[in-house]
Specification:
This protein has 438 residues and is α/β, with parallel strands linked by helices. It is built from 12 helices and 23 strands. The longest helix has 14 residues, at 124-137. It binds a DNA duplex (10 and 13 nucleotides) through residues 12, 24-26, 29-30, 32-35, 116, 150-151, 183, 185-188, 236-242, 258, 260-263, 265, 277-282, 284-285, 321-322, 344, 346-349, 422, 425. It comes from Quercus rubra.
Length: 438
DNA sequence: GCGATCAGTT
DNA sequence: CACAACTGATCGC
């Protein structure tokens, strides 16, 4: 079976060029310090952060692509030996530092791979990104849009990060005598922390490795590893728990703030436009929260909008680095691709973006009715993408995936996974199964 | 030691 | 219940 000439966020196969959208670990599975299969194309900031994540990596493999400009890459078809030129433009994805989308064009047509992205309409930076994309697309039709469909369901609605950042300020200001703990990952949410620091004129504690990352990002004055300098600390999300907060509160009054992409599901039939979400595990829900009567229902901060207090020490705020449904819709309307695919299929509930946005695709009907779309097949032979979205597997893996295949629920657009819980994790089995003629 | 896979965490 | 992102154990080489 012919392998893809290029790979996006996919590191286990063999390609001639590899593209990295950003440095979160679910996009670098298979990448390591000793990985050396070929050139990696990424943004300048990702390249700067790269050696910190993969010390000892052969940096001569990295190819920096300035954002917003086209670059040509020569590829050679392994089967025919003929060479072709691929053009690629990285575009700011507004997901985390260094994150980009990749716009490709070549003999195969025009592809846009968003990686993880947030498409806010309010900020200056978002406006620049929108203009950049429109300029890049002005002479092209996107044949296939590979879309971050993490929250591709109208149930997912949350405000812009700027609004939520202000909500976080309100929480902190309303607790002047408390220490503040904020859960973050190894990359991302820097803008939130900078906003807090700027508004409240305080430094923010981070753990030592995170301080190094902050320095690499160019933030030299805002962050500290000295706890005595500030009451606001950003801690690893995996060390942020109810138990942690309860332990801290035996020493000093402390509240936790979790900026989370957890589902902020609109429940129109319940409490009007109130937003609900949860950062609590089911274990905790059963064992402690429900047993603690009434505490979580008090609303000491009536003006916090969708902020939800789940625990006497913990606030969850809908600060998401992925696009909400309305933003995905805006994006699709802007790009108007001929066809599209979701790149996230790890959930037990996969929503095909075509269900919601298919009518926006110019050639959607014809693409669906044609038994063989030659152009699409050419495209798919060229491009191998990450394991959330693999189009190519060996024959035996293909058989396995037949068994684990998803089932399309008629008229719902929701594919209910039949994978066992064991096999459910990020197998990327869903997308191409529905594209292949049987 | 390394990569792949799985289990488990918030 | 759910998510994205992450850590850590284990296994085969």
């Amino acid at each position: 079976m012919e392998k893809g000439l290029i790979s996006v966020d996919r590191w286990t196969g063999h390609s001639q060029a590899y593209f990295l959208t950003h440095l979160h670990s679910d996009h670098t599975q298979g990448l390591s310090s000793s990985w050396a299969k070929g050139p990696i194309f990424c943004s300048r900031l990702t390249a700067k952060l790269f050696p910190f994540k993969f010390p000892g990596f052969n940096l001569s493999l990295l190819r920096l692509l300035p954002i917003g400009t086209w670059h040509s890459i020569s590829l050679v078809s392994p089967s025919s030996g003929s060479s072709s030129t691929l053009q690629v433009m990285p575009i700011d994805a507004h997901h985390c530092p260094g994150s980009v989308m990749f716009l490709f064009r070549g003999e195969f047509g025009c592809l846009l791979y968003t990686g993880d992205f947030r498409w806010e309409t309010t900020s200056k930076r978002a406006e620049i990104g929108r203009t950049m994309l429109l300029n890049a697309l002005k002479d092209d039709v996107v044949d296939i849009l590979y879309l971050d469909n993490t929250y591709c369901n109208p149930s997912y609605a949350f405000p812009s990060r700027a609004i939520v950042a202000q909500q976080v300020i309100d929480i902190i200001v309303s607790h002047p005598e408390h220490d503040i703990i904020i859960g973050i990952d190894s990359l991302g949410k820097e803008d939130l922390l900078l906003h807090i620091s700027h508004e409240l004129k305080i430094k923010i504690w981070v753990w030592p490795e995170r301080l190094q990352t902050m320095h690499l990002l160019g933030f030299h004055d805002t962050f500290t590893t000295k706890t005595s300098l500030t009451r606001v600390r950003a801690v690893p999300r995996y060390s942020f728990s109810v138990e942690t907060l309860e332990g801290l509160n035996t020493m000093r009054p402390t509240i936790g703030i979790m900026p989370s992409g957890l589902p902020w599901v609109v429940r129109p039939l319940e409490n009007g436009d109130k937003l609900f979400g949860s950062l609590l595990t089911s274990r905790y829900n059963r064992s402690k929260w429900s047993g603690n009567g009434g505490n979580h229902t008090e609303k000491p901060n009536g003006n916090l909008g969708s902020v939800e207090k789940f625990h006497k020490y913990i606030y969850s705020v809908p600060y998401s680095d992925h696009s909400c449904f309305a933003e995905i819709e805006d994006f699709v309307k802007l790009v108007l691709p001929t066809n599209m695919k979701g790149i996230v299929s790890s959930s037990s509930c996969y929503v095909d973006p075509l269900y919601y946005f298919g009518r926006l695709c110019g050639a959607y009907q014809s693409a669906q009715s044609l038994p063989h779309n030659k152009r699409k097949e050419r495209v798919e032979r060229l491009l191998a993408v990450n394991n959330k979205n693999t189009f190519r597997c060996g024959a035996s893996a293909g058989l396995e995936r037949k068994r684990a295949m998803t089932v399309k629920v008629k008229n719902s657009g929701i594919h209910v996974s039949r994978m066992s819980a064991l096999r459910r994790k990020k197998r990327g089995a869903k997308i191409e199964e529905n594209d292949r003629p049987n």
